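hey
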């Protein structure tokens, strides 16, 4: 089973905002202070799940995990695949930094069919009501 990472999205309210931000030439790298101790497990098919306004909405495959710098100024860069995979909207409480997310706890991917055409807010409400 692959190990995943989950992180809050700051500065973007929707997946479309995230895509527009990266169209401006920004690389698909997530920066964080702490380097994951289980980086090898993340690289074995893991994904970065993104939380928008309290709801997990999408994931991207993790391609690389690197520590940049040394000592007190060391930081971690997590490079992700530019392809965004939408997942079933799943509520998630706020947290700081990032967390590991076991595959068994990860929301399922949405197919490109009918499920993918539902507005994200409606999908979130359906999921919270237990109807989806």
């Amino acid at each position: 089973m692959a190990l995943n990472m989950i992180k809050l999205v700051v500065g973007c309210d929707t997946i479309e905002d995230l895509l527009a931000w990266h169209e401006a030439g920004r690389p698909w790298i997530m920066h964080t202070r702490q380097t994951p101790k289980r980086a090898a497990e993340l690289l074995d098919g893991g994904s970065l799940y993104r939380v928008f306004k309290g709801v997990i909405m999408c994931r991207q495959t993790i391609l690389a995990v690197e520590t940049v710098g040394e000592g007190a100024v060391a930081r971690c860069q997590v490079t992700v695949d530019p392809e965004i995979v939408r997942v079933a909207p799943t509520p998630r409480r706020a947290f700081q930094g990032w967390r590991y997310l076991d595959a068994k706890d990860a929301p399922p991917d949405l197919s490109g069919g009918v499920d993918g055409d539902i507005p994200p807010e409606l999908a979130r409400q359906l999921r919270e009501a237990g109807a989806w």
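The two ends are 25 Å apart (CA to CA). The chain has a mean pLDDT of 85.
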